[in-house]
Description:
The structure is a homotrimer. By secondary structure, the first copy, chain A, is an alpha/beta fold. The first copy, chain A, contains 17 helices and nine strands. In chain A, the strands form two sheets. A seven-stranded parallel sheet of chain A has the order 1-3-5-6-7-8-9. In chain A, strand 8, helix 13 (272-281) and strand 9 form a beta-alpha-beta unit. The two termini of chain A are 31 Å apart. Chain A binds chain C through residues 245, 247-248, 250-251, 257, 273-274, 277-278, 280-284, 305-306, 308-315, 347, 350-354, 356-357, 360-361, 369, 372, and chain C through 36-44, 46, 48, 50-52, 55-56, 58-59, 69-70, 234, 237, 239-242, 269-270, 295-296, 298-300, 302-303. Chains A, B, C: This is Amidohydrolase-related domain-containing protein. Chains A, B, C: InterPro entries: Amidohydro-rel, Metal_Hydrolase. Chains A, B, C: Pfam families: Amidohydro_2.
Amino acid sequence: MSDIAAYVDGLGLVDHHCHGVVSADLDLAGFEGLATESSWPSPFGGSNFDTPFGVAVRALCAPLLDLPKHSSGAAYVARRSELGPEEVNRRLLGATGIDTYIIETGVGGSELLGAAEIGAATGAAHREVHRLEVIAERLLEQVGGGDEFVTRLTDRLDESAAVAVGFKSVVAYRHGLDFDPARPGLADVRRAADAVVARRTDGARVRLTDETIIRHLLWEAVDRRRPLQFHVGYGDSDIDLYRCDPSRMTEFIRRTVGTGTAITLLHCYPFQREAAFLAQVYPHVYLDTGAAVNYTGFGSAQVVRESLELAPFNKVLFSTDAYGLPELYLCGSLLWRRAVTRIFSAWVDADEMGAGDAVRYLDLIASGNAQNVYADV
Amino acid sequence: MSDIAAYVDGLGLVDHHCHGVVSADLDLAGFEGLATESSWPSPFGGSNFDTPFGVAVRALCAPLLDLPKHSSGAAYVARRSELGPEEVNRRLLGATGIDTYIIETGVGGSELLGAAEIGAATGAAHREVHRLEVIAERLLEQVGGGDEFVTRLTDRLDESAAVAVGFKSVVAYRHGLDFDPARPGLADVRRAADAVVARRTDGARVRLTDETIIRHLLWEAVDRRRPLQFHVGYGDSDIDLYRCDPSRMTEFIRRTVGTGTAITLLHCYPFQREAAFLAQVYPHVYLDTGAAVNYTGFGSAQVVRESLELAPFNKVLFSTDAYGLPELYLCGSLLWRRAVTRIFSAWVDADEMGAGDAVRYLDLIASGNAQNVYADV
Amino acid sequence: MSDIAAYVDGLGLVDHHCHGVVSADLDLAGFEGLATESSWPSPFGGSNFDTPFGVAVRALCAPLLDLPKHSSGAAYVARRSELGPEEVNRRLLGATGIDTYIIETGVGGSELLGAAEIGAATGAAHREVHRLEVIAERLLEQVGGGDEFVTRLTDRLDESAAVAVGFKSVVAYRHGLDFDPARPGLADVRRAADAVVARRTDGARVRLTDETIIRHLLWEAVDRRRPLQFHVGYGDSDIDLYRCDPSRMTEFIRRTVGTGTAITLLHCYPFQREAAFLAQVYPHVYLDTGAAVNYTGFGSAQVVRESLELAPFNKVLFSTDAYGLPELYLCGSLLWRRAVTRIFSAWVDADEMGAGDAVRYLDLIASGNAQNVYADV
């Protein structure tokens, strides 16, 4: 185990799907609010430090802030404040071994450090991915009607494609992955956008849930041949989980074979097996277990193991899906290293996989596959 | 491992969902009929002692009846008869370490020892949970029409709420968890009850499958702020398993946030991950792996492990879902102890979780969470 | 572990679901095309030797061709060619320990060695299973209309039942397992067949996707009391995975209890738990994890473990689902042996299962259950 473990510890990572980190100091409630996918506090006085992720933070991050392992949540947050967010970010991000951050910019605002700032703070490379629904929402707040929407969307997507290395869609929790796989007609898209414009309130944010418009976004993104990330499975309190099974979008996947656009399935929990099936069968499909690794804490090795049951080794990506907390970057990295160390060591120690193959596959998952999928990474 | 193991062995349990045990002697066929969720005998001469649960009975219960481990089913049942049901119940229930039984009274009749009798036999505390569909069925057998049903139901539920610590619904196998989340209008409920009354046969039992009436029961139960147990997943030959995925009732869960009513998801197999997701995201949702632990026998540690991947430690409950056989109480208890010993020992031994945290979380799952959720337990 | 391991190594197997092996020499592309369920090559220069199955081939098969473990794919295919297909088939099939091949003849043509040829090459017994959709397709290419189809189908199925030990359906990927459970009326079947005949092109193969006709086939097969195999879950690029959940055909299963026809659920990944649930509850349902064991490689033990969580030990079958490559027979056999060795050894070593029971259950899964289910095997 020691050889594989040492190799994994030294792996530089491409985090192909993450978000910014908060720049401000956080109190206990602020920290706990970012340490869960829930939108509500726990009853009966529970703490989000008493979750699989909370346990991981206290085991893995506390020592990096000079605290004993398993310190209490209160002690942890107090020490965090004492050091200040810049120092905490520096220490935690610095220990992730992430060389390249591919940051999805569609959620959160100026309270987050963006790609460039994280790059500056860590010395790592950074790229952007743009969220399709956000691009459309900003446009739907400005346009006079569906006709203008369709026309200007083309320009906006072209502009995005010029700077972003990929697009992301959250159709999973705006509609479900059981969307109609067909490209919608432009007349239908215009009509749907007209309806959104008619309903919108001046100055209020538009929240896009119209399935026709979202499908239009997906197909427009496919045209631009940028990798298209899909939120899959767990990761938001808005979702109906069974409708986030990626096999519900199989026909869309089938129709985009050969377009030159890669589809990357994000998080996938508890559908990592379904996602790996799609990655095996369809040449342009990739998967990661991002958010799931963080939120399953020291139970995450089984999740990673299942994602590797069926998937070819050149179809699996690394991500943290970190949002807000640098702890999500750190735990996402260390828990993933722990998981693949266990999995690959077991194979190599039993002489079921050659050590050279293990190293090659680990390189691919850590960074090589992402470098293949995303241009200029 | 020894410290955690010893601690787990000594844990007193609140079994938050179980049923009575049979008071009569059982022959081989009688025992085997209660040792499965199937309604049919196995072809080709198979025995329900040759199942994961049957293996567990022969390993864990046989020694308590002075038999060698792995005795045959025939020998086991013969020894059971020799000792007599009272002694068998005393020995097996006495070895469970269950301090409090929360007994759901909606299935089985006078052949079962009820809550008070189990309490008397074991010296343990006992509480009752009432099954909504049974309350409605008894009433539908008596009333003249929908109007009377709706009126008298209010009284019946109030009476139940005065003595029961919770309600249970089996909508999973009467309809599916994909029921309409909206509260039905009273006119619709009356009409539906009228139809049931019109169809009923004098003296015959009514079996409630009407979705409108069941939804009315659910919302009436929510009004009474008693924990509401839902059968989820595996556990009955009536079910269409995919319709028992708890994520299909997400919208109902969303609409009951903040009502003060806890929702407890029972058994959950093979949807323990979906259930744990809901328990993480929604503040009033809890889960257990009751029946699944028994029926997966020595494979149950993986099921428990999956239920602990995502769930906060203050959202997981212990139950046996035992029905009829005291063996289901004993195996449900010992298999659960074996599972959590393995899971928490591995974390503590690897210094991934502090021993103090482990003890705290084990206390919560064994009894503390149930004491929070159910009043007066 | 050593005793169980030795016992498992010596077990003779009935492979209750497999296909022929190719008789021709294969180049690298030819081999890789048969080493996946995908229909497309991998982008970015990936190789199907860098998949869980490819790793298993290089670990388990290479030594049987006098190569070092973990040899490259290119070296492996070169050595294969050097030895020639006959010798490769002889060596690999000879090392499987399969005593009886039950070969499904519905896919592939003269490029495959059939049942008799495999029997001759290996000295093993061999039986046939016929694919319902293929029987109907050949007939639909010949008949003048629906009336003739219905009449002649009866004869064709009788002829099949006289030589085949079972039937197989691929309704999973022609329609989905969510087919209507009711037996269709003959008038509807005739009308549906008329439509197929009206649409067909002279000389072109008919591909049957009509749900009414397929249901007719299923019920006709049930009448003939031959075991009826269903493709379930993973195993073809045509499928929408979520529609291949076997619990979607629960009502059909319910309606066929007591017909005397066994239903065997094939592969089942990732629905092995759902399949095992059905096998526990319904007396005529059986399952295997065939293709899944091969394609999950050294991750397969977990898949087998899950299939054994709930299923009675007399309801689980062995298969390889091998098609084309003798490597699929060899890996299917050795990976299954590895999995059950780990699972049963752990139980026996912990004194949770008696060694005598373990041996009895292993015999059942290896061959006894298949001998019960299939007549004359």
